[in-house]
Amino acid sequence: LELVAVKNAEFHALVLASARSPLLAEMSSSVTMVSLMAKAFSVFGRERLAQSMYQHRELADAITAHNQTWAEAVMRAHVLSATHFMANVLPLRDPDTDVSAEFPSGG
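Given the sequence above, the corresponding structure tokens read:
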């Protein structure tokens, strides 16, 4: 799981560098965001992790295709699904007792 977290951070850093958006970089690097993602990542089930990795692959495909509209849509979906997870699922889980739980991916 630690390697996944490292690779996730590397991927997001590459996306931020490519976006060349100071506002996006500032939002993504905030202490609160990093803390929330670390907590969320520690309790991701296989289904949620697979969904996140799929979104990363699709974003990479959109960037490779130089398709800004597609990349923006994928990024919005990624952020919205993560926001839903953190707001509606994460507060219900105790990472000390529920680490291997599978989480719903619904919207």
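The mean pLDDT is 74. Try to locate this feature in the token string yourself.
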